Amino acid sequence: MSRILVIAEHDGSTLNASIAKTVACAAQIENAEIDVLVLADAAGPIAAEAASLASVSRVLTIESESNAHPLAALLAPQIVAAAQNYTHVFGPSTTFGKDLMPRVAALLGVNQISDIMSVAGSHEFKRPIYAGNVVVTLSAPADVIVVATVRTASYKAVATGNSAPIESISVDADLPTHTRFVDAQAGSSDRPDLQTAAVVVAGGRALGSVENFDLIYTLADKLGAGVGASRAAVDAGYVANELQVGQTGKIIAPDLYIAIGISGAIQHLTGIKDAGTIVAINKDEEAPIFEVADIGLAGDLFTVVPELTEALG
Amino acid sequence: MDKILVGLKRVVDYNVRVRVKSDGSGVETDGVKMSINPFDEIALEEALRIKESGGASEIVVVSVGTSEAQQQLRTGLAMGADRAILITTDDAPDVLSCARALLEIVNREDPGLVIVGKQAIDDDNAQTGQMLAALWGRPQATCASKIELDGDKAIITREIDVGMERIEIDLPAVVTADLRLNEPRYVKLPDIMKAKKKPLDEIAFAELGVEAGPQIAHSSYEPPSERDKGVMVDDVQGLVTSLKDRGLL
After folding, report:
1. A170-175 average pLDDT score
2. Same-domain pairing of A29 and A148
3. Mutate which: B127, B142, B245, vs A, most A CBs within 10 A
4. Where does the pLDDT of residue A73 fall: very low under 50, low under 70, confident under 90, or very high at 90 and above?
5. What is the average per-residue pLDDT within B234-245?
6. d(CA B79, CA B47)
7. Given an 8 Å threshold on Cβ–Cβ distance, is A102 in contact with B230?
8. pLDDT digits (tens, 9 = 90+) for B117-151
9. Are residue A133 and residue A246 in the same domain, yes or no?
10. A185 occurs within a structural domain
């Protein structure tokens, strides 16, 4: 039997949507018992959310003031202590999980598997490399703990409605004082979250300016969509970094992805290949984005996008 | 600080579209253009800027790889690094072993700061910096978009999923570079000539006495599944109709 510990990502009050997908990946392993570990200042509502996830056996909480902010250097030793009787430790492949899980793995003396996209067995997984151009099958040794991150875009969230028991635990771990949280600046947006939105409208370098990006926002608002961007648009300063989609930004899987003025570099395409339907609007008929688009429209975005926004009423 | 150590990995160039070998045993790298991992280049640029503003006196670049990785280290020296160390191996060591090897170099060199790229664009693991920091027992600041040094501390601005975060870390520490930390300089021809005279030491991986990590076997490589060919529509009306047909509007 596999005993899997999933590390919960949260913002201090709610569970991150990536966790229901991480649990979905863990549940692909046959005969698995899945526990979720919440490290927080006050775990209450977060633990309750985790307990509602299908396939979860138990929710464990470690509450302390030092867990108020997700600092890998402080979380890792606690996770190592809590992971002693587990065969697997999984985290989401978000900036939180990518920061934390290699530190956990190194402290446990094992290698880490990044971005699991499918499960072939309890110790056999597939993951993308080279910006998704290649898929590799990996076999982890059976006699050591598996530490991994899950490519959440590859999984649908598990259902809710469960009521797993919640248990407070304490661990014996030395916490360093060398790393301190200062502050965080969250992008302020009333729009749906890019990583969980059913519809995403994304703009590229062809938008040409911060002001022109309003075309994207207006269309997105009409569709109730999240907003994304190519690396080129972020580098050009049209939008903030957290909107970047692709190899080094966010990997997303909305039902509908509308790429506007995005040429479709391979590094961008890897971030959207799991989208249900991809729409591309681009002036250049030869743009690589059209190779992956389900629906393509070759045209000037400055004409097409207002027209589309208008047509949606 | 006296010294900044920068990790440089030799990888298939950013612009190359890699192919899986026909027998699925790996990725075709024969005759393919190789470069410094772009994130490591950003890491080096940042170290050079810190040195140029008086924040450090020596920049050492280090790589783990075959003797061919000398090329990337020479490029690093041409960018402005003072010295290079190549940990030579014909195998492709696992990340934990690499981090252990880097720790040996860290222990010998005693840098005030280690900067590496946040991920390598070949295996996309994004692990080395964090593993080194863990083994070293020092702070890590991943996905850095700004480094502000202040004596024996630093404030690092990190690019995270919801926006930006700032953390304060004691030095020495490991920082991993994100895209917007800086824009690396171009190498000039005279600098390439000068770089030939700079020291490049080779140390055999085996001589470092590093224990290999539990091996994760790579059993097969395959191309990703392709998406079905889509349709082109002529105008907005066609697009709207097509979206409605799919039940998306």
Report:
1. 94
2. yes
3. B127
4. very high
5. 96
6. 11
7. no
8. 999 999 999 999 999 999 999 999 999 999 999 99
9. no
10. no
Locate the chain A residue with the closest alpha carbon to B176: A99
- Judged by CB atoms closer than 8 Å, whether chains meet at B134 and A98 is answered as no
Nearest to B248 among A96, A136, A255 (CB): A255
Mutate to test the interface with A, among B12, B19, B131, B162 (most CBs of A within 10 A): B162
How close does chain A come to B103, measured CA to CA in Å? 12
A6 and A128 housed in the same domain: yes
User: Which residues of B fall within a CB distance of 8 Å from A73?
Assistant: 133, 139-140
CATH code of the domain in which A90 resides? 3.40.50.620
Nearest Cα of chain A lies from the Cα of B83 at a distance, in angstroms, of 28
Contact assignment for B124 to A250 by CB distance below 8 Å = no
Split at pLDDT 50, 70, 90, the class of A188 is low
Residue type, B230: G
The CATH number linked to B20 is: 3.40.50.620
Per-residue pLDDT band at B188 (split at 50, 70, 90): very high
Q: What is the pLDDT, as a whole number, of residue A190? A: 81
Q: What pLDDT does A248 receive?
A: 87
* Contact yes or no for B142 and A99 at CB 8 A: yes
Tell me, yes or no, whether A153 and A211 share the same domain. Answer: no
Domain boundary among A168, A191, A225: A168
Q: How many domains does chain B have?
A: 1
Point out the domain boundary residue: A118, A147, A168: A168
What tens digit of pLDDT does each residue of B94-112 get?
A: 999 999 999 999 999 999 9
Confidence tier at A78 by pLDDT (50, 70, 90): very high
| Contacting residues of B for A277, CB less than 8 Å apart | 243, 246, 248
pLDDT band at B211 (very low <50, low <70, confident <90, very high): confident
